[in-house]
Amino acid sequence: MRNTAKRFNVKITTAVLTAGALSLGLTACGSGSDDKAADADAPLVVAASPVPHAEILTFVKDNLAKEAGLDLEVKEFTDYVTPNTATEDGSVDANYFQNQPYLDDFNKKNGTHIAPVVTVHLEPLGLYSHKVKSADDLKSGATVAVPNDTVNEARALKLLADNGLIELKKGADSAATPADITKNPKNLKFKELEAAQTPRSLDDVDAAVVNGNYAIESDLQPAEDALVLESAENSPYGNFLAVKEGSEDDPRVKKLAELLTSPEVKKFIEDKYAGSVIASF
């Protein structure tokens, strides 16, 4: 029994030493300063809507990033879901396409952990039509397309309410739906569509409420073509650079945040979009 115990102790000691060596090896491989330096120099991959977000990022990439020591890659997405899920699962490092009410709703519904870094611009939501020249010209029973996601639908209804087309129940906010309409003098009908589809519906409906980025992509000029346009004053709908929680202090993210709020980017937004996109800094 004494010999058996001795052999058993040897096995235990050997196992402990082996585990310790493995642990040290993993620690050395996983947390060395060289890896941190490599991460800081790695490309920063940002998911973005094509217009204006990817255009603004491309301006930064082509004109400001190299001098700032930032390797920036831009990935375009045409929907409002994939940029957040890709950021959550690490497929991209950051995204730039959304506002705070939308993000709050998305995180709550999807269990994601996306956090804002810096607000860059506002895209005013607008009401557009191929059939009438003013909102007052909408006939009784007219059909209006609105985005079907929670935040943008509420935002669309508020736009209509602010311009006297409907009235909303007191307290209706970022979750308002057509069920919250208390007065509808024109008896408007609402067609709920994915936000990206609203500008494409203009030949089929009497009017549509369209997000600014999709309006610009569809060759609409919000400052000129909208029948009514959302006010930029005190708006909670500024679009921001966002990352997964815990990545806010990534030096590459901080660098991009500085570039996105630089005088050069502000001038680019003012010159290119002529009021259809408004810098928020």
From TrEMBL:
CDD domains: PBP2_lipoprotein_Tp32 (cd13597). PROSITE patterns: PROKAR_LIPOPROTEIN. This is Lipoprotein. Residues 1-28 form the signal peptide. InterPro entries: Lipoprotein_NlpA. PANTHER family: D-METHIONINE-BINDING LIPOPROTEIN METQ, METHIONINE-BINDING LIPOPROTEIN METQ. It is a lipid-anchor. Keywords: Lipoprotein, Membrane, Palmitate, Signal. It is found in: Membrane. Pfam families: Lipoprotein_9. Belongs to the nlpA lipoprotein family.
